[in-house]
Each structure stands twice: as C-alpha cells, then as structure tokens.
Model the fold of this input.
Amino acid sequence: MNAQPDRFDVIVVGAGIAGASVAAELSTDLHVLLLEREPHPGLHATGRSAAMYEPGYGPAVIRALTRASRAFFDNPCSPHIQHPLLTPRDVVFIARDYQTGTLDQMLHEIGQGLSPLPINEAHARMPLIREGYASAAVLNRMTADIDVDALHQHYLRSCRSNRASLVTRADVTALRRRGGDWQAETPQGTFRAPVVINAAGAWADQLAVMADAAPLGLTPKRRTAMIITWPQGPVPDDWPMVVDADEQFYLKPDAGKLLISPADATPSAPCDAHPDEMDIAICADRIQTAFDVEIRRIERSWAGLRSFLPDGNPVAGYDPEAEGFFWLAGQGGYGIQTAPALSRAAAALVRRTPLPADIKAEGVTAEALAVSRDSLRRPG
Ligand SMILES: Cc1cc2nc3c(=O)[nH]c(=O)nc-3n(C[C@H](O)[C@H](O)[C@H](O)COP(=O)(O)OP(=O)(O)OC[C@H]3O[C@@H](n4cnc5c(N)ncnc54)[C@H](O)[C@@H]3O)c2cc1C
Done:
C-alpha cells in the first residue's frame, strides 16, 4: 500500500488535450496525477475545436510540431484507437482580387503541399463558392479532419492503463512550494508532488500567479463556430474546407451539415466562452457573401478560447524562477494537431532529457519552446 496516497511524482493541472497527452507520456514510468476543475475532461478549448490537421497553418514552430505529429496520427499503434484518427479533407483558400498577394505569399512561405488552383477548379470542387466572388485559389492536399474525441480518449485511457489518477471537480485554488514539493489545494483534497505541469489552457497565467511565478502574457482569444443545415439536403462529405485568404471566415462539411466560422479572435479573460450575437451576425454575412448559401437557421453555435503567447509559439519548459513548475501552454489554434509531438517533447523536457530525434529532425528545439526564450520577455 502507498504510504502517502496524496503524493505523486508529477501533478498535471488541466485535462484538456495538453494535460491528458503529457500525463499519458509521463505515466509510463512516473506516478502521475491529473487534476481537472470540470466534471469531465475536454469541456473547454479541446472539445470546441474545428478538428483540422493543417500542416501549413501557424508559425514555423507550430508547423514543425504539426509535421512531427503526422507519423502518430497515421499510425498510432494504440489499443485504445479502433479507427483512423485522420480523414483526408482538402483545404481550398480563396482570394478576391485584392487578396491575391496573400495567396502568393502563402505559396512562397509555406510551399510544401500547397499548389495554385485555377478558380474554375475551385468551383468544381466546392460548388457553393459564389460565382464571381473569388478570383484566385490555392489548394492544400495534406490536410485532414481529426477525430479529436478519439485522440483525447486515447490519452485519457493510456493514463488509466498506466495507473495515473484523474481527479475531476478538482479546481486547483492554491499552489505552494513546501519542503521540495508543490502542494495543490483542491475541493477534493490537497495533493503533493515535486513537479507541477501547468496545462491549464486559457487559465495558465492565473495558475502561474498562484505559484508565485510571473505570468507570460498569455492572451485567450474567443473563436466562434456554428452548424447550419444546407437547404438542398445533406452536404457531400468529399467537399473541401474553404478558407478566406486573410482568415476572415471558413466553411467545412460536418456530418452532412456545414460548420462555419467568422474566424474571430477577440481577446477575452479566461472563462467558459459563449458566442456573441454580433459575431454570429458577422459570420452569417461573410458566409452568405462568399457562398451561395442561405442561412435560414443556425442549428448550434459555440465559442472557445484559443490562447496565444506574445510570440505566437507554445511554451514547454520549466520556469527558471519557480523550481519544479513546468509550463505547457499557448497552443493557440493548433493544440490538437500538435499534441502528439508537443506532448512527447514536453515529457522529454520534464525528464530533463533531449528532445526525441524525430521531433528535432523537423527543426523543433528546446530553446524555441523555453520560458526564457528572447521573444518571450515577461511583462512588467
Ligand atoms: C473554435 C476553435 C477551433 C479550433 N480549431 C482547431 C483546429 O482545427 N485544430 C487544432 O489543432 N486546434 C484547434 N483549436 C485549438 C485547440 O482546441 C486548442 O489549442 C487546444 O484544445 C488547447 O488544449 P488545452 O488542453 O491547452 O486547453 P483546454 O482544452 O482548454 O484545457 C485546459 C483545462 O484546464 C482546466 N483548468 C484550468 N484551470 C484549472 C485549475 N485551476 N484547476 C483545475 N483545472 C483547471 C480547464 O477546466 C480545462 O479543462 C481550436 C480552438 C477553438 C476554440
């Protein structure tokens, strides 16, 4: 019997994709506790995403982590995964006359996987694009839908089979360093470990303040999405996702319906985000301008927070000023597609070992993820 049932090697705060994935990686040989404030894991950003794998999306570090995640997505080798995690879905970026420069820049900067698409072919692939709206298009064929729930469940079940503990309704309300351990106070009890991983999503800066560590200037940004029906019947599942060149909107098939978004990024305090009526109206206007779609009824709408650090890259590393306090935050709009590689990288850094070779080979370095990197000067 464990003499100290409340003492662990590592406490992970937050059971979204970030916390669940790093807990799964570490619990192979460490005694790990995963604490989640909500009654169920995945109620915040993780359960509200657009579920895309888009290797051309985001800054270079994100693109490298996304590429490094592909091998796992294609071949997860997990007893907890019964179906493919990725279902191919092309992405077509469309531009009006004044936006064509953005597409040229995209082709130049990202290159791999992207190719110009004649506008008549864009219409053939997605007949809903309004005639005369767009003048140029770019195709990305390396993109896919992600089964987010299956990925998240794989990590949570791996934690269970590795004998990690998950405690829900366990809001961490105080974090104190005592005698070489962190003490995490929750309504479910006080738990101790020498290492705490901050995977609190939009709340990561708040958790740091609790631990007397300086915040990193994380900004949660609200993004709205909604499901509409297509009056003509079920939407063909082989239609691509269509994204505005300047990311002012997107539309993709979703189980016979259409998922649409105004691609909003409104700064917000960390909270249980809800859609704003104005964003819904803006979304309807942009979608009905660009597509031959009449929005009669919004079946469901939601909003979630995508949390960004000032330089746009995630952080995975120990805080140099708070012993044993490890950050895993700032995944922005890419936390699902990067989770397989970021969690392995984070687990290596928690153990103070080198990054896995395949992740390094894509150009990811510990320095680029570190709290102390130059581009992440702490506010104040
Ligand atoms: C509309 C939308 C579309 C998106 N589309 C995509 C996409 O297509 N592809 C992609 O890769 N990414 C996408 N994202 C981004 C992705 O969802 C996030 O990057 C990812 O889910 C972040 O995961 P997380 O675990 O860090 O955060 P979360 O899922 O928010 O988890 C953090 C958890 O920490 C818990 N917590 C916080 N504070 C405490 C505390 N004090 N005590 C205990 N628990 C605490 C919270 O309850 C929460 O469950 C999208 C996001 C949104 C909102």
Observations:
- The first strand starts at residue 10 and ends at 13.
- Residues 13-19, 35-38, 43-46, 48-52, 170-172, 199-203, 207, 223, 225, 304, 306, 331-337 surround flavin-adenine dinucleotide (CB under 6 Å).
- The mean pLDDT is 96.
